[in-house]
Amino acid sequence: MDLPQKRKRISYELTNSQPSTREAAPSTSTNGQAGGFVEGAILRITMHNFLTYDHSQVFPGPKLNMIVGANGTGKSSIVCAICLGLAGKTAVLGRGDKVGLYVKRGCSKGSVEIELYRANGNLIISREIQEENNQSTWMLNKKHASQRAVEEAVKELHIQVGNLCQFLPQEKVGEFAKMSNIELLEATEKSVGPPEMYEFHCELKTYCSKESKLEVIRELQLRVIYTAEEKYNVKKSNYSNNVVSSNSALRPSQFLTMTIDADERHQLEEQLRAAERKVQRCDQRMAAVREQLTKLDRHDNELRAKKKKLSELKGKKRQLEQKISTKQDSLRQMEQNEINLQAIEEETNTKIAAVNNKKVAIMEEYLSRMQMKARMSMEKVYLALQSAGLSAEKTKLKTDCRDSLAELKQAEGVYTKLDQIKTNLLAKCKTLMSRASAICKMSPGETAVPDELHADFSQLPDTLDEIDAMLNEEKTRAECFTGLSVAVVEEYNRRELEIKNMEKELDDKTNALRTYRQNIAEAKERWLNSLKQLVDQINERFSDFFRSMQCAGEVDLHSENEEYDKYGIRIRVKFRSTTQLHELTPHHQSGGERSVSTMLYLMALQELNRCPFRVVDEINQGMDPVNERRVFDIVVRTACGVNTSQYFFITPKLLQNLQYAEQMTILCVHNGPYMLPPNKWSEKAFMRRAKRGHNC
User: Which compartments does it reside in (predicted)?
Assistant: First the structure.
């Protein structure tokens, strides 16, 4: 397999080696892609102090790349380099959660550099990882850049290392079958759908959410009706037309039920003044106590100074005792020398006695001072306790004073309100008197009732209660004639205004709902038609792949009650003719069957070719030899097609006598202490040695 555009595509693992330089990109082919590379395909991967590698360069091909090597040689390290080098998260790989863990053990930093094909100039992304603080330094085309800028550049090339339909690491292979139908649909839309498909889907879900909120508003029509004694609620459903009503009694009015006692108010004011006088006396006592405490502190300081002097005298006494002891030793020494110093001894004894007497006087004075200090300390403690009690009493009095002031203010407020009510009532009485005078046709200064009205007034009851009863009877009769009271009329007018406002609001909500439904219809037409075509294309390829394996499989669009946030892609498969199609789940199929289904679904996406490359790491683990051979033939046939993008297939082993294609690139990963550095590697020399060994 010696193609013209083949270059060194071998992964090296060695220390102190120089990075290889890539040759110029080959000339543009007939399909507008340079050497078969699509926009965003990987041209080069360089790793330095990364996981198992000291230094390595990988040059993948434009179609199918088979990365083969024994376990532990560093195949998955290349997958990690692709993910982290393209600003992917460590959670995608399912390994260490800190990026510093991907630096080779014993090294302080590592780096990954990836070169991507672009028609207007290749894009080189470099990432240097610090092991100690898990920080990264990014570069775009050898210029420093932020991670955000790298993510934007990768997004422009439609690279999604966080999408399992494009990037499937070894630790995430089992999670593909665990994806829900909704998650699989979103991943497929992002991977192979038109750029606007996923945006239409999100827009449609937003419109439906707003429509549901508006439907809830329109679902119930609420009406509230008041009478003089009760409140009625009436609810009517727009869907079932069921009417539910309920009523509740109104609370009676509470106007003019509050009274104030002037004697009690006067008593509270006297208590407040007494409390203020008591607080003033407490303040005076507190000032006296503080002054006394100041004097005691001053006296205490004087005692402390005297104590210090006594301590100094005690030290001097100790020095004198030492001197006396020294002299006594000298005397004993002199006595041993048989010197008669009787006169000196007597004089010394006299001095010692005087010193002892002085010492006794000092100690007596010291004890007297200590006793005085103890008495003063006890007095100070007693005064402090008395001060604390007075402070607590003052606090309580202040609290009582505040409470009394609050009650007084409340009472004054009630008094003010009542006074205002009294003023209003007097004004009303005057108005009523003027009205009565006008009705009786009396002059403004006239107070006597005209004679012609005495007969009418004589027919009225004599007491106010009887007059009120008569008025209530007349009001009841009037209400019987009209059927409505003034309060009901006012309530009716208010409710009528509320109904008009609610109807206006309902019209606005209805118009908004109509607009959202129109937007939903438009978004649905744009999204659903293209989505069905996409799913049909995937299903056609997926079914063909399963049919070629003498099995059955299909992909369809699954939804629940036309809820667009519930739409999903459902994969159903069967591997035996005696069974029915079953949905792909983590529990129903075996591990090998799930791997086959996952691989064939990804191959069904391959020819749709929106993402520049796909990575699948060790998905053939658990497959039986028959299915593995069939899947391998499908992968080779599909990934080496004309209109397909780059494909990375990582595996630790391959079956014998497999069918290969000229468009494939085999990347053999070796690891060990005797590997040659990249600048000393010669493919021709390796082939010559291999032929000589074969001939021998």
Answer: Chromosome; Nucleus
Cα(71)–Cα(69) distance, integer angstroms: 7
| 475 in the same domain as 381 | no
Q: Are strands 136-140 and 143-145 parallel, antiparallel or unpaired?
A: antiparallel
Q: Which residue has the higher pLDDT, 19 or 427?
A: 427
535: confidence class by pLDDT, cuts 50, 70, 90: confident
**362 and 467 belong to one structural domain:** no
Number of domains in the chain: 3
Domain hosting residue 608, numbered range: 7-24+33-178+590-671
3-state secondary structure of 543: helix
pLDDT score at 33: 52
Q: Are residues 358 and 467 in the same domain?
A: no
Average pLDDT on 250-273 reads 65
H or E stretch at 49: strand 42-50
Rg (CA), the chain: 51
| pLDDT for 114 beyond 90 | yes
Is residue 117 a contact partner of residue 44, using CB atoms and an 8 Å limit?
no
Is 583 strand, coil or helix? strand
pLDDT in tens, 569-593: 888 888 887 788 888 877 777 777 7
- 240-250 pLDDT, tens digit per residue, is 556 566 666 66
523 occurs within a structural domain:
no
The 3-state secondary structure of 100-165 reads HHHECCCCCEEEEEEEECCCCCCEEEEEEEECCCCCEEEEECCEEECHHHHHHHHHHCCCCCCCCC
The pLDDT of 212-228, averaged and rounded, is 56
Helix axes 342-439, 262-336, angle to 10 degrees: 170
Strands 646-651 and 613-617: parallel
Contacts of 407-416 with CB under 8 Å at 24 or more apart are 407/268, 408/265, 408/268, 408/269, 408/272, 411/260, 411/265, 411/268, 414/258, 414/260, 415/260, 415/265
Cα 228-230-234 angle, rounded to 5 deg:
125
